[in-house]
Amino acid sequence: MNELSEREQKYLEISTDFRKFGAGRKVGCLTQFIAIYRRNWLYLVRNPRSLNGILFNGVFSAVLNLCLYWKVGVLPDNFEGDV
Asked: For residue 83, is pLDDT > 70?
């Protein structure tokens, strides 16, 4: 039988069962939200192309909605239909 090196022996007791990994951990929704928000913000700051893409996408969507719904509820003055 192969003998384990000293480096390998210290990992024998570590479990890799991920169902038990976070079982005793209690984290609230706000803490999770803050962690994810911070992670995404750091990603955007480190990758300016992503930030530019998100800004362009937001502006384009706003302009598209503006064009689609421009004067939707405006009726002409001589409109005589049942409303």
From this structure: no
